[in-house]
Amino acid sequence: DVKVTQSSRYLVKRTGEKVFLECVQDMDHENMFWYRQDPGLGLRLIYFSYDVKMKEKGDIPEGYSVSREKKERFSLILESASTNQTSMYLCASFGPPWAAQETQYFGPGTRLLVL
Amino acid sequence: AQTVTQSQPEMSVQEAETVTLSCTYDTSESDYYLFWYKQPPSRQMILVIRQEAYKQQNATENRFSVNFQKAAKSFSLKISDSQLGDAAMYFCAYRSALTQGGSEKLVFGKGTKLTVNP
User: Fold this and answer.
1) Which DSSP category does B8 fall into?
2) What number of C-beta contacts closer than 8 Å exist between A and B?
3) Torsion of Cα atoms, B102 then A31 then B5 then A84, to 10°
4) pLDDT mean across residues, chain B
5) CB–CB contact B108 A43 (8 Å)
6) pLDDT at residue number B71
7) Would the CB atoms of A98 and B99 count as touching at under 8 Å?
8) Residue in B33, B46, B102 closest to A56 by CB
9) Is the pLDDT of residue A20 over 60?
10) DSSP code string of A31-64
11) Which residue in the set A35, A41, A58 is minimally distant from B110, CB to CB?
């Protein structure tokens, strides 16, 4: 079974703090994703990475950056947290392109509160 | 850009009854995948069922089945014999069948909250 883990289930941070959310997958997947989930808005893609050191902006990248130094780890960084970044953050990973039947596997989520 | 619409923010069903969740999507692609994901309260999002657009046969997984209407761009989820454990947020999602960097991303609808009444 694919396992995607996230470093924290709950986080409380103050406005202006630098926040790191970490995601690790154990299935040697090339593709990893960070989504943000808000009530009534569904899941929105922040950033994704299809290889080590490669990253692409998703639909809402403003205020976020990412890092992928190792294949299994994909970090989301809030350089200066703001209250409008209070949300649930979901990490996901996806296998190689030829695994056409595969889909994304999700971590348990990190609920971030910015005060 | 592709879009996914779930027009029912909330649905409810009696235990043991059948419920259908609606999803429509918009795309100019001919080959793609569609998914239904389930997110129980405070629990991990899991895949319920997937459908390949090139397959005419509707996918089925135990009590879960889909009605895929490609021409109408409709992809509804039917849950038969509803159980209390089916209570969750359900998300419809789209993925391109292209195999180049970035095409593996999912486009989600806004979700439908399903309540199962005993």
Assistant:
1) -
2) 60
3) -100
4) 92
5) yes
6) 94
7) yes
8) B102
9) yes
10) EEEEEEEETTTEEEEEEEESSTT--EE-S--TT-
11) A41
